[in-house]
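Lesson 9: reading folded outputs for more than one chain in a single document. The general rule is that every protein is listed as its sequence immediately followed by its structure tokens, and records are never interleaved. Here is the first one.
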Amino acid sequence: MERGPRALNTSELLAILLRTGIAGASAVEVGHQLLRHFGSLEGVARAPLQQLVEVRGIGRDKAALLKAAFELAARLTEEKRRATPMLDTPESVALLLREEMSLLETERFFVLLLDARRRLIRVEEIGRGLLDSVLVHPREVFRPALIGGAHSIVVAHNHPSGDPMPSDADVRTTRDLIRAGQLLKIELLDHIIIGRPSTDRPRDFCSLKELGQFYS
């Protein structure tokens, strides 16, 4: 109350949600246990409800409370997305999508519809794949752009492995979309891949345009 939530560490924030610990342990200790068990806050967020329930001190009610808290965070991200931001850099696209996409366990493919000023009209999810691949066709990508009156588009997908570098299939898909956009007069501005940061790779995304892959 005196210093605000930013002054608390992750275990302490979890403790506020959990409120009480198990016999002989404080809620903060249960928060520590959660982080140790799943490795990180991201691991806790990704954990299925049943795995949370199996952690000592986390019953069904507390597991449901945790899942609800993470869902509220995801919905807050969705509200921010609707604020029509300007998406004129790879960093701005990554900032918009990072929180939602970094937690996904399978690849998903999104198209971002932009107006003539490169402001977001809306985001459409157009493909879901397996652990390490997702297949999309140009008609699926450009259909919402045509219906929504988009001036240009950016496409984005995630790599659950955490490594954002493009595969050969990612490069081929990008070039197919560039050619389709040229025919339809809807420019593909970039293809962003979202991963996760690591000690040797602090940047958690890549831009195929920055990598020099934007030629048809």
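And here is the second record, again sequence then tokens.
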Amino acid sequence: MTAQVRSELLKLRTTRTTAQMLLGALALTLLAVFLEGLPPGTAELGTEHAQREVFSAVTTAPLFATLAGLIAATCEFRYGTIRPTLLVQPRRRIVVAAKLVTAALAGSVVAAACVVVAFVAGVALLTARGVDIELGRAHVLGLVLGTIAVGALGAAIGSAVGMLIRNQSGAIIAVLAYAFMVDAVLFEAVPSLGRLLPGKAGDALIGLPREHLLAPAAGLAILVAWTVAFAVAAVVRSERADV
């Protein structure tokens, strides 16, 4: 298992797509900080709610982490490298587990980098506008630790989805369609059901200022349950399907 994880980490480090996803996540995080922090007046920006919106720019990280995990998995099938991978390690569940662990590590790194960018840019923006920081310790911890946890779990889910769908274009379209249509629309239409989906469970864990979300601990439990479910499905698919 350890050797397989090292192999998967090497693949990630030598793939340009991983770096591109990280840069994209950082750029969008920075943009989101300024989009949320520049329009409000000084008085409004001095409120805790407004500052939570500014620092909530970190929520760009989980989607990019999910896509990074998905692309890392589907690249194996796109370029046929899954075959030599399975020749070296024929136990497919080990390969799937290593991919999920590696994706989770990569997702946590992407999320942590976005957290740093969001807080550095956010604090600089508030200071430049002469606004005191009103965020409480609990909210800061939620934004930091919650985002990293969601990034890790989201990337693991993305890797599992990639192992399930295998076609890279189809998998990316499926994830984006879910993120921007199913997750958002269902939550707006039926909040009691939509908040149980992975996206809104992640928002709850981060502690976003949104009505109808679960408590952070419940969000974590739901997101872990989804991750385990996708991981089991990926193992079953890998064990039963040809490559």
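What the second record shows: The CA atoms of residues 187 and 194 lie 4 Å apart.
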